[in-house]
Amino acid sequence: MRKFSILLILLLSINFANAIATIIDPEHPLVVIDFDKTKWFNVMDKKCEGVNLEPKYRDAYCKVSIISDQDLHNKGYYLCIDYNVEPINSKVGYLCPFCGMDLSLFNKLEFYIKGDKEAGFNSILKVKICTWNQEIFYIITNIETRWKKYSISLDEFTGNLENFNWEGVEKLLFTFENVSANVPKGRIYIDDIKFLPKKDVSISIEDFKLLKYTKPRNRLIGFPKSIVKKINLNQGDKKLLLQIAKDTWLYFANIYDRNTFLIMDHIKVGKGLKDSHIGDYTNITNVGLHILCILAAYDFGFINEKEAVALLRRMLKTLKKLKKWKGLFYNWYLTKNAKISCEYISTVDNGWMAAGLICLRNSFNGKLKKEVDEILNKMDFSKLYDPSNGQMRLGYHTDKKVPTKYHYGLIATEPRVASLIAIGKGDVPKEHWFKVYRTLPVEWDWQRQKPKGKWRTYFGVKVFEGYYTYAGEKIVPSWGGSMFEFLMPTIVINEKKWAPNSFGLNNERIVKLHIAYAKERGYKFWGFSPCSTPDNMWGGYHEFGITVLGAKGYEPEGIVTPHAIILALSSYKPKVVMKNLRELIKEYPEIYGEYGLYDSVDIENDIVTHKYLGLDQGMILVTLDNYLNNGVMQKRFEKDPIFQNVKELLLKEKFFE
Q1: Taking the CA atoms of the chain, what radius of gyration do you get in angstroms?
Q2: Which of residues 233 and 170 earns the better pLDDT score?
């Protein structure tokens, strides 16, 4: 370890004497934030703040302030937290973002805490350490009115410690949850949050911080050099969309690990290393979309056939090595070593992985067919099927050896592609398609509307063809009313052609109603779908949609995302879609960067999120490929025997007759 430290010092040109003075060891722990010199910013130069973790409960809050320290060390400052967790289901907290910090060198979390003698402490305080998709916690239930030092071994945290990714910690959270309906408010104080290193650690704080900022980037092919790129809005629609496609491809051409070839989940583009961030992990949907985007780049002529085949062979080599269960891919992998980060198998995500493989084996005159078949044929979707109700489960927990309790129960959502693939492969019976609800059962009175409709029989299976109504239109709802739930399947299936009286018609109405809803709310722009959010609101990613178009319904919250607008090109009037897109870019020039359109803009507060998400960039590029290249990706998918086995399911159904 000592050699490692010296080597780092030499490589990074850090003064040796200065490095020795700032060595991380048990006597000099890593101070995350002490509220003195750093005030609101932690050791990773990220702003810490109070957050509402359940925004639907608008009265809940976590207000933070910094108070002069008079009774702890008689110097400096400490944090004061006033919280309100009313109603009971609300949840607030103090967020300390790390954005991928490596905590594998540490074994204890230490901090001082006390409660206010007047406001008292009447809630559960959970101290949470979180990665992008994992969470461990430690519960504190009795906070005294005098300062108490907590020194918590990381082994004492509750959760899946064995598989926790200590090298990719995204945030530290102090969360408050109400357990007393009578006294939901309180105040506590916190100071000197630290992580204590293991005994054999010998690395300077400067080296530690520089490693965090540079290590993932060194494994990438490239990275945007600036935040904003000017795009010519005076050119015609096709030229404008081609330019967007070309820039969007740069994400997939650059933001993957050199060694594992796994695409990064997301990047944030800032003014420098400290303001930038790399989501150094991936979801298997991202990988499936990466396949489609390489094919799209070939269709556009950004790369030639030789280059495309070389990239895809490398992709297949990686896929063969990834750990799987029953031939199915795990949901999350670490990009640096291709290891799984949680033992969960997702139905919908494996559906998109399979969709990418299906399109691939129908490309380049079958050059890669044999390799693709080997992977695709082993994917056994029957393990995710529940014969008791005929629906697909959300997934399977391989560590606990149990399937999820819940199912994909609504047809007008993006998992319908996984359902069609599972049926087309012969893994699940054909009747599964009609066991998925068009609307939730009428007797489920908690849904947004009581559906109307008729019972019909298809292929011997009775199905209630229900619908909601909004603004005089009948629609089959999704879960949240978001654009990608309805329209993401169109990146591989031409639903206008194959389902003209069901999904094709429904998709068109959904876009029309998104536009009407935006106008009703006074929004200048439309396009509401789950996306990254400005200033890490709601934890950095949140679900947005049109409430009245969903069985549950998401709120739009004034957040518009370009991928939702682009998806609408294949389902609605292109001129209307392009007008919305052009005006959005004109109003918010910062929404366009070197790698194309950023993920979202808060049109109520005029804040652009300078993030690129692999998922959303993939939907943009493949949609543009279909729109500008005569449905080429859809034709690849529809040519396959898997789709040929299920196309009659789409052709026959009529939603609104």
Answers
A1: 26
A2: 233
